[in-house]
């Protein structure tokens, strides 16, 4: 029974630890530690960093690793870890530990990694590391641990330590299994101004040696000669070393297994430029070097033939942050066996350091002045020599402002070109040949122009990145999609941050294989360019533009793409979306479509009240808008009806008021369309002297006396409707034409005249003719056959009687003579 209770207790305890650990919860043994388990095993990691611990907690045996960094621990109690036989990793860095005793690590028989860096350790007993028989990794940077105490670490493979080479001329320990030795001053303290052949003689099996930033001035021949397994050597940031001293290093490397050589910044930043000579590299030809780094060395040129000294095994070369100039050495580039090259940050500016390293010898430039003056390049203009095997070029952050003209390149295998953050302000091209290129990055170049032939020789390009430029000045004019016509196989296009206001409909007409299209951070407000032919499109980035909604044509295009690719997703976050009655169809579409909206939790829109609304649930928002817009629609319909009624009444009133003018203009246009008017330079010639307007009951007077007196006796030509109107022609048209072709209009006024519709029509047409065609000339003449009271006259007639002359037909013989004479005088 007692045994069963104990087993249950153990099970519950372990179960509690594993449950807390799986979730990264507080450990049961310390409130200041977090536990993370290795399910399904019962081992777990304890993270107690930054917990202000002054003492090390007691841990159980099922712990895999312990992190106690960044605390205030001052001492490790003897045999404190005696119950942690399964512990593999222990981190005690950044504490205040001052001493280590021989029992500090007692019981840690399986410990493989120990980090005690950044402590004030200055006292270590001789057998402190005796119990760490499985230790393979030790970091003791920024401590004063004597290297002689490491002798018992027979299986140590990686050691990170400080290296101060003063009285002792070597590392006084023998660790035959040590493979990786980090003595760098970048992460610790290192000062070794002179390296001789005795310094590393007890650790001959080193494979990776880091001596960067160790203030090295001299390296004697033979220092690395016995390191047969040395494959990685880092001598970077020893600014007093120079290439002349590094020649002793290359002398030893032919006896090693060197694969990677790093000699970055072994020349001071603010000294004269330097030149790589053949002698600096000649010893490398017999090595199996794969990677060479010579960054930040103010290299301006190379001696002719120097590049030919590099081994045929070289595949990667990094020469960034230098000052290369044009020279004959460029013709040697074609013969380089490299596949990857980094020539970034050319002509980069630097800030002087307050703590400039002092050199014990004069660090002068090896660049001969006469070579600069007498240098004549044999490379022809607009020709770029490239290594035949070259596959990738990194050319970033070069502070040179120029356009890329048409250039001819040597045969190459370039697949990858990273040219972002330069100053290529104009892309003219083409660059030929680049048949193998798959990736091109020209982002961040402040480029405002790209020609229609720039991509002509890059037909197999798959990824094009042109973001963060100024192409919004040129792309909207490419209405026929000519800029990208030569790159139909593009899989990814990035045109973000280009201030593009719009893209023409056929801009992407050749890009049928695009999978990812980025147009974020532009000035787009409508999606008018064609995308429904992109059957493989699975992402469209439209974030941070000016879209207030996606209209129906845009939505239809997206749905067409979705039919071919069910994984389609779009991002329209950061746009000033609107949630109003005008855009409710868009909100409904967002809720119903199966297209994925990336970052939907960031979407928001503005209501008609200018209030922001989250778009997490488009369907619910659509229901709210639907209710609001029903009443709104009724109000709009009512207002439109009222406005329509008002406009109709106003139009009717205006038409009624100007009805005679409108009718007159209608008939005049009709007459002028079918007839040709005769004109003279001085004045118009009228067909009739007068048009006689009378009512049929008064025709005896007109035909009996009027025509005889004026036509026969006076020789005038009169227009009489019963005689001169054209048969088959519209009456109103005949009247208007006769009035327009007559110099005067004589109205035979009588009660019968006032009661006749066509007589009043003739009268009104004559008035309109007088006002609008004769410049208000008095062409209308009234003849009253009998006396009529003013009350019987219409307002329009009475107005004319009061303002203009008229005549009454007399009843006596004398008056009759005067009447006809006056009438002849008026009409002549």
TrEMBL record:
SUPFAM superfamilies in the record: L domain-like, RNI-like, Toll/Interleukin receptor TIR domain
Membrane-spanning parts: 635-656
Cellular component GO terms held in the UniProt record: plasma membrane
Main location per the UniProt record: membrane
InterPro entries recorded: Leu-rich_rpt (IPR001611), Leu-rich_rpt_typical-subtyp (IPR003591), LRR_dom_sf (IPR032675), TIR_dom (IPR000157), Toll-like_receptor (IPR017241), Toll_tir_struct_dom_sf (IPR035897)
Homology family: Belongs to the Toll-like receptor family.
Name of this protein: Toll-like receptor 13
């Amino acid at each position: 029974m007692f045994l069963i209770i104990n087993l249950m207790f153990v099970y519950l305890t372990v179960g509690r630890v594993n449950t807390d650990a799986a979730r990264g919860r507080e450990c049961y043994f310390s409130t200041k530690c977090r536990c993370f388990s290795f399910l399904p095993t019962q081992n777990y990691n304890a993270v107690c960093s930054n917990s202000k611990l002054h003492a090390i907690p007691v841990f159980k045996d099922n712990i895999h690793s312990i992190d106690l960094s960044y605390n205030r621990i001052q001492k490790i109690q003897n045999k404190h870890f005696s119950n942690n036989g399964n512990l593999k990793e222990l981190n005690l860095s950044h504490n205040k530990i001052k001493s280590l005793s021989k029992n500090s690590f007692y019981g840690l028989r399986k410990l493989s990694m120990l980090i005690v860096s950044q402590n004030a350790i200055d006292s270590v007993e001789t057998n402190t590391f005796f119990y760490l028989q499985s230790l393979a990794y030790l970091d003791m940077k920024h401590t004063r641990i004597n290297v002689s105490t490491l002798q018992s670490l027979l299986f140590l493979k990686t050691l990170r330590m400080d290296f101060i080479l003063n009285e002792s001329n070597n590392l006084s320990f023998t660790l035959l299994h040590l493979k990786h030795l980090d003595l760098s001053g970048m992460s610790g303290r290192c000062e070794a101004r002179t390296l001789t052949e005795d310094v590393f003689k007890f650790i001959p099996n080193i494979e990776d040696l880091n001596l960067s930033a160790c203030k090295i001035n001299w390296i004697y021949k033979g220092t690395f000669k016995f390191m047969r397994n040395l494959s990685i050597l880092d001598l970077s940031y020893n600014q007093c070393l120079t290439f002349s001293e590094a020649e002793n290093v290359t002398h030893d490397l032919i006896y090693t297994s060197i694969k990677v050589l790093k000699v970055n910044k072994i020349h001071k930043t603010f000294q004269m430029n330097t030149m790589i000579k053949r002698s600096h590299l000649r010893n490398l030809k017999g090595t199996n070097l794969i990677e060479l780094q010579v960054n930040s060395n103010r290299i301006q040129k190379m001696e002719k033939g120097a590049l030919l000294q590099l081994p045929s095994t070289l595949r990667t070369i990094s020469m960034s942050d230098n000052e290369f100039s044009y020279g004959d050495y460029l013709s040697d580039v074609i013969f380089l066996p490299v596949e990857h090259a980094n020539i970034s940050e050319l002509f980069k500016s630097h800030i002087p350091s307050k703590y400039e390293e002092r050199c014990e010898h004069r660090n002068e430039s090896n660049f001969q002045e006469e070579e600069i003056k007498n240098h004549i390049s044999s490379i022809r203009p607009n020709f770029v020599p490239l290594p035949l095997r070259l596959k990738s070029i990194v050319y970033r952050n070069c502070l040179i402002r120029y356009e890329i003209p048409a250039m001819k390149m040597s045969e190459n295998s370039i697949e990858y070109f990273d040219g972002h953050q330069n100053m290529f302000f104009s892309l003219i091209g083409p660059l030929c040949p680049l048949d193998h290129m798959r990736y091109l990055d020209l982002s961040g170049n402040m480029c405002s122009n790209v020609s229609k032939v720039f991509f002509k020789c890059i037909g197999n390009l798959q990824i094009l990145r042109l973001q963060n430029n100024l192409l919004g000045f040129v792309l909207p004019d490419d209405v026929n999609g000519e800029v990208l016509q030569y790159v139909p196989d593009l899989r990814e296009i990035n045109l973000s941050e280009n201030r593009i206001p719009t893209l023409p409909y056929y801009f992407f007409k050749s890009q049928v294989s695009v999978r990812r299209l980025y147009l974020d951070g532009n000035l787009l407000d409508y999606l008018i360019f064609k995308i429904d032919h992109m059957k493989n499109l699975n992402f469209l980035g439209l974030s941070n533009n000016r879209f207030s909604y996606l209209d129906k044509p845009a939505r239809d295009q997206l749905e067409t793409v979705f039919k071919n690719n069910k994984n389609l997703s779009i991002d329209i976050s950061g746009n000033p979306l609107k949630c109003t009655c005008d855009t409710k169809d868009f909100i409904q579409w967002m809720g119903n479509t199966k297209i994925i909206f990336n970052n939907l939790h960031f979407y928001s829109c503005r209501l008609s009240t200018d209030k922001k609304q989250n778009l997490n649930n488009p369907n619910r928002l659509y229901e709210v808008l639907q209710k609001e817009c029903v009443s709104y629609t009724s109000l709009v319909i009512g207002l439109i009806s009222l406005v329509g009624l008002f406009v109709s009444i106003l139009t009717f009133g205006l038409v009624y008021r100007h009805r005679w003018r409108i009718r007159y203009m209608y008939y005049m246009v009709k007459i002028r369309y079918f007839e040709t008017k005769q004109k003279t330079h001085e004045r118009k010639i009228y067909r009739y002297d007068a048009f006689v307007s009378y009512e049929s009951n008064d025709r005896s007077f007109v035909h009996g006396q009027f025509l005889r007196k004026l036509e026969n006796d006076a020789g005038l030509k009169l227009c009489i409707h019963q005689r001169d109107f054209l048969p088959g022609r519209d009456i109103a048209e005949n009247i208007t034409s006769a009035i327009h072709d007559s110099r005067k209009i004589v109205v035979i006024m009588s009660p019968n005249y006032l009661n006749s519709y066509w007589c009043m029509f003739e009268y009104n047409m004559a008035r309109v003719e007088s006002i609008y065609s004769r410049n208000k000339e008095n062409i209308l003449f009234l003849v009253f056959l009998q006396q009529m009271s003013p009350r019987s006259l219409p307002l329009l007639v009475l107005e004319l009687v009061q303002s203009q002359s008229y005549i009454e037909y007399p009843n006596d013989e004398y008056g009759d003579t005067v009447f006809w004479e006056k009438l002849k005088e008026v009409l002549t």
